Amino acid sequence: MNEEWRSRQSPTIGYAFVIAIWLQYVTATMETKIFSWLGRKFVEIVGAARGGGAVETATAELFQKFADTLSPLGLSLDNTVRIRVFGRDRQGRTDATAARSRILNGSRRAASSSFISQAWFDSAGDGGLELLAMRPLSSTAVRNPVDFAPPRNYLCYLDYDSVRFFSGLTSQAATLEQQVSEVLTTLDGAFAKAKTDWSKVVKLSLLLQRGADIDSVRRILTQKISLRVPDIEFTFVDGFAGENYLVEIEATALGG
């Protein structure tokens, strides 16, 4: 086990202290980060499922390993606020997503997204997870998973301890620029439903088709939201749930 301590500064939340722990499970590596953000404690776990078997079964086993990692920290899968699913190929993404839907159900449902990315994997597995768990400020905080209307197979957002975690949103528009613009408009409606707005957005994550022009995306962001969000990150992937998607955008915001 290795440990790395580091600090970082944000223009809105001051210093956040992070401890990263790498655990080796047979042929797959799990990385756990414990950090402070928004005045709360968070745990991020990243890991690939074992290779050589059914992806859905291996991903379910990975969820159990995540639960075992959270338990000594006084947390459980019930504290999950965001889950990203990765597949080495389209079928791997589909099968790993099926495990997510089966395990994170009911009040456990969290903001979610799913992607195809060969580069994400450094092991033989075909499914992987990035899980974010939060310790609420109050032990009596109630999780409120909010569906789309009509409901979809993933949440619109999770309202938990006055923080809104929005699932990844996509568009069927013809070009990347049009998709980004359309998703930002969709977020306008989602924020209104959640009784928040762009001034309370603390993080925006854009997962882009590999090779996309980030500068053109930045220009759209500047036009639409004037880059008011303090933390914007970009990640490249090889594909999404829909074959025509070029970008998926996740948002995290404080409540009103």
Describe the structure.
It is built from 4 helices and 14 strands. The longest helix has 18 residues. It has one domain: 2-Layer Sandwich (60s Ribosomal Protein L30, Chain: A). The termini are far apart. With 256 residues, the protein is an alpha+beta fold. The strands form 2 sheets. It has an 8-stranded mixed beta sheet with strand order 1-2-3-4-7-5-6-13.
Looking at CATH, which topology would you report?
A: 60s Ribosomal Protein L30, Chain: A
Quaternary structure classification: single chain
- Count of β-strands: 14
**Distinct helical segment count:** 4
Radius of gyration: 18 Å
The top level CATH class name: Alpha Beta
Order of helices and strands: EEEEHEHEEEEEHEHEEE
The CATH homologous superfamily is named RutC-like
What CATH architecture would you give? 2-Layer Sandwich
Biggest sheet overview: 8 strands, mixed
* Shape annotation: globular
Low-confidence stretches: 1-27
Give the termini distance in whole angstroms.
41 Å
Q: What would you call the structural class?
A: alpha+beta
Q: Can you give the helix content as a percent range?
A: 10-25%
Number of domains: 1
Secondary structure topology:
Layout: E1 2-10, E2 14-25, E3 28-37, E4 40-48, H1 55-70, E5 80-87, H2 90-103, E6 111-116, E7 127-135, E8 143-146, E9 157-160, E10 163-169, H3 176-193, E11 201-209, H4 214-225, E12 232-237, E13 239-240, E14 247-254
Parallel strand pairs: 5-6, 11-12
Antiparallel strand pairs: 1-2, 2-3, 3-4, 4-7, 5-7, 6-13, 8-9, 9-10, 10-14, 11-14
